[in-house]
Amino acid sequence: MYRVRFLFTGLALVATVASAQTTVGQPGRLLASNCFQCHGTNGKGPGFDSLAGKSSSEIYKELKEFQSGKEGNGIMARHAMGYTDAQMQLIANWFASQK
Ligand code: HEC
Description:
By secondary structure, this protein is an all-alpha fold. The protein has six helices and no strands.
């Protein structure tokens, strides 16, 4: 019983730390780092389509299309599903700022 309660307190703490981290440093950078594995570090290949330097509105629009399930082969839909609109906007802005 006590053990279970301790576990939940621990999880809540981890969640708090994780959300605090998204607010430090360049906005969007930590969220965008989830994309580096496939789209290259900082969104600059090699890998699937390079994202750096695309316009923010284009990246955001594509993410929304993936999220809706109407676009892509399923890989991106699964990624896009995990983000809120505000987070996708941050990610899109960050990639657009990369030259
Ligand atoms: C597991 C690999 C993988 C990860 C991780 C990944 N992507 Fe993708 N992404 C792909 C693949 C594969 C495609 C192209 C295939 C398709 O259309 O579904 C793609 C396509 C895209 C496109 C369309 C590019 C174009 O020029 O048409 C955008 C935008 C995009 N991804 C953004 C992101 C963002 C932002 C993230 C991080 C939140 C991300 N991706 C994470 C594999 C990945």
